[in-house]
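Lecture 7 notes: from sequence to structure.

We start with a single chain of 227 residues. Read the sequence below before looking at the structure.
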Amino acid sequence: MGCLRMKKLVLFDIDGTLLTPSKSHKESFNLAIMKVYGVRVDVSSLSLPGMTDRQIIFEALRCAGKDDHTILKGLKDCEYALLEFFAKLSTFEKLKTLKGVRYSLEALRREGVILGLATGNLEGIAKIKLGRAKIGSFFRVGGFGSDHYDRAEILRIALERARNLFGRINKAIVVGDTPRDVESAKRVNLPILGVATGKYSTRELLEAGADCAVNNLKEGLPFLLDR
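Now the structure, written as tokens:
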């Protein structure tokens, strides 16, 4: 009997890891929260990198004096409004892949690596972003901000979906650009490649606990392929 091929899964964050941050995404939060809760907020005042969409909604409304019970009552409507506003506003925005992303995704796919997502974005927003950037077809599985409030749970969901689709996963690696990405990977005992293509430097990502940190995704290919 021949050797069975090892199945490797790489789970990517989106904003700051694959794509430049979206201004229309931020504005969509403000509009959706006003529509559903009648509260004027500015989510750019929050420390956004690494937060899930649900966390952003909760934190913005908590800062505005809303209690969690009130937030939960309107959450589904707010998520729907967020997606609706983003779908409209993002048509006027050019979403760009970051340095080395397309090359790296192509290289990983050629090597038979299963590519997936572990993002705080709502699933619909993630798909719009990746579709507009023309890289959506690379990703075969994922966990999303519409699945859970907590990023570590999103990773667990993505892993479970991958196992259901592809069977046993021999190795899984996370790729992200923030200390929150690092912390969530460590909570589920997965190695993480930190990419300094967002707000944080390689030093900050290593100090947060990343197993490796690089300046861009292409530099991280040896870690992803050889790990």
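The mean pLDDT is 95. Keep this in mind for problem set 3.
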